[in-house]
């Protein structure tokens, strides 16, 4: 999908994934983090409520990336204190930095399923040794014509990530927001060392 596809979604207000605040599973994970020096990436960041929450709580080494400049501009207007050089307007697959933690929130499900193996490879490339991929994946049957969002299952995801990540947690999120209750898997995975 082209950048214009996502920009048009924002311009037309067709952003059903936007809940207007940090999703509970991610917020509760952030709240237990102690190392404020972690270098964090939020790909497909959209309105970046997670980045704003992190930054306001002392995590100043957080980067947000989006294919569309529209949500990045909206975020900059809403939260001008966030450093402009940490707003990455580019294709996720072209990011060249390394991170300690990558937060997954409605990005994976927005990608065409034929990019899922490439996603796993890129996550591995972007994470430092023992880096973590944490967040939520949708747990509902895949519907090619209906997406995005594109779904999947725990069994599919375990198979997809098993070679390159140690899966510490992949279970139904107990703290999803009401409309997503029972449809989200909370994930915490650690990049395998070579």
Describe the overall structure.
The structure is a single chain. By secondary structure, the chain is of the alpha/beta class. The chain contains 6 helices and 7 strands. A 7-stranded mixed sheet has the order 3-2-1-4-5-7-6, with helices on both faces. The protein is globular. The N and C termini lie far apart (33 Å). The model has no long low-confidence stretch (mean pLDDT 86).
Summarize it.
Helix content is 28%, strand content 24%. It is built from 6 helices and 7 strands. A 7-stranded mixed sheet has the order 3-2-1-4-5-7-6, with helices on both faces.
Tally of extended strands? 7
What radius of gyration results from the CA coordinates?
A: 16 Å
Mean pLDDT rating: 86
Structural class: alpha/beta
How far do the termini sit from each other? 33 Å
- Uncertain parts: none
**Secondary-structure element sequence?**
HHEHEHEEHEHEE
Helical proportion?
Answer: 25-40%
Largest sheet: 7 strands, mixed
So what's the overall shape? globular
Query: Which percent range describes the beta-strand content?
Result: 15-25%
Strand arrangement in the largest pleated sheet: 3-2-1-4-5-7-6
Total of helices: 6
Helix-strand blueprint:
Blueprint (H helix, E strand, L loop, with lengths): L2 H9 L12 H8 L8 E4 L5 H8 L5 E5 L2 H10 L8 E3 L9 E7 L10 H11 E12 L15 H8 L3 E8 L11 E8 L3
Parallel strand pairs: 1-2, 1-4, 2-3, 4-5
Antiparallel strand pairs: 5-7, 6-7
